[in-house]
Amino acid sequence: MLTMMIVDDEPLAVHYLTETLLELEDMDFEMLKAHSGKEAIEKMEAGKVDILLTDIRMPGMSGMELADYTRKRWPRCRIIFLTGFDDFAYAQTAIRNGGIDFVLKTEGDEAIVTAVQKATQDIALEINREEILKRSREQLHAALPTIRRDYLRQLVQGESESLAVRARRFEELGIDLHAGSPVLLVIGRLDEWGSFAAPSDQSLLFYSVHNIAEEYLNGSLNMIALPYDRNRFIWLVQPTEPTDDGQEEQAIRTLSGSVELVQAACRRHLKVPVSFLLASSFCTWEAMMQRIEAMKLQLAYGIGKGHEMLLTEQRREDKEELRSSKQFYEEQDLRIHLHKMDLLETYLDNGEKEGCEHLFGEVVKAIKLLSHNDAGEALAYEAFSQLAAFLLTYINKRHLIAQLGESFRIEEILNPFQHNSTVGAVQFLAGIALSLADYNGLKKAERTTDMIGQIHHYVHAFLQEELSLTRLAELVYLSPPYLSRMYKQTTGQGLLDYITDVRIQRAKTLLMTTEHKIHEIAAMVGLESAPYFTRLFKKITGLTPQVYRDSRLTG
């Protein structure tokens, strides 16, 4: 819904224009009225204005001055100037001040309606799909480094996808690596921060190490540096062209020599010690997460003084690697599902029981697959502990213990041994989550019902006043567009349509039970103009107010 403000120092002109434009069936406006530039500014502060229809010559603040203010407050507002003076200089000034049209009052309703339609179409063009996509592309370009880093971090953490999807994402994000070729891994660790101890300097240190590395690689290898945690980072390295086995060996030697130079340069120029662990061979993108986990352990338990280590990965025998690979992926599958539990808070808050069921179902499935794993039981208890801690924190923060009922016992959420099995323990937590989601969903529905009731009460109590969408939104602390959308989704009727229905029903009662004149009844139901009231009443009931009143004598 668009908001239009009509400004003229002649009240009758404002009323007439409002009536004319409200009768346009193909336009849906919230109408604001003002009789001076000062009043217009006061109302403009309460919410945005999409179209300003203003007289030019007004006492106090002129329409030109109001347009200048409007442009500063709402830069995208379309402005239509009205004047009774056929002055070309005025028209020129109007265009220079951003007015999209200039209409003489003597041109009649058709010219004004055409100008408003033109303004509406202009707004639609501005917010159409192509404009949105264009702005999105610009924003995407600015955010590309962050999106690229987050995507690669997901790959490192084991998110799986097909080669075709990965290749497309590499191209979209400008990742200068081959999606179908194996990758060489390096894990680095900043052993001390030196003069970069301040949090604001730590990112600077990371990029400094990265820049030094790129200088020494000098185009022979492509590398992407990825922060892993506070003091560790990962390099993803490939030759600039796809390689065979012999070239891979050469790439490993080139990287090994370069890393040694990078380590020395960091000590000399940055005054910080950096440790590195180099993979002994290339690995596929699918196996990258497992290799990184193994390399992290080796770097953590490296020999020597623990600073400025330069290590090469030690690989296990093939049979042990094969056995541990299956076990690793089963374990990691559970951890991936636990990572996705950050969605649980959203599902609980929104009362989305299906989302909760799906998340817990995936965890239970992963636990069952681990039943033959030596460490499976311990991992299941780890999963229970994480989920229990999350739910207990959620319950405490929102003070929901009382809502869970007397049957809820705190020891059951803290102690997995209160249950028959680890699967049963996790399913018990799933039941608590579903209870919380159900409770939140009911409370959300109650709050919505209460809010609509509050709006209805206000409309009935202050029907004779100007019931703008902005005022009603302020009443319930929502934005006007959201209130309009939410009200229609909940009730199936537009809020302004509801207000009109109430006004007509109140008018019917007054016409049948009082002797007030037609113009008095119009004012009593919030419609200042009697002619507009008459047209609106007839449009909805099929009868004029007078004919409707007379029907009581003949009925």
From TrEMBL:
Q: Which InterPro entries does the protein's record reference?
A: CheY-like_superfamily, Homeodomain-like_sf, HTH_AraC, HTH_AraC-typ_CS, Sig_transdc_resp-reg_receiver, Tscrpt_reg_AraC-type_HTH
Domain HTH araC/xylS-type stretches: 453-551
Q: Which segments constitute the Response regulatory domain?
A: 3-120
Q: State the organism named in the record.
A: Paenibacillus allorhizoplanae
**Which residues constitute the signal peptide according to the record?**
none
| SUPFAM superfamilies associated with the record | CheY-like (SSF52172), Homeodomain-like (SSF46689)
Which keywords, in A-to-Z order, does the entry hold? DNA-binding, Phosphoprotein, Transcription, Transcription regulation
Q: Gene3D superfamilies annotated for this entry?
A: 3.40.50.2300, Homeodomain-like (1.10.10.60)
Modification type 4-aspartylphosphate: residues: D55
| Name of the protein in its database record | HTH-type transcriptional activator RhaR
Per UniProt, what is the name of the gene that codes for the protein in this document? rhaR_65
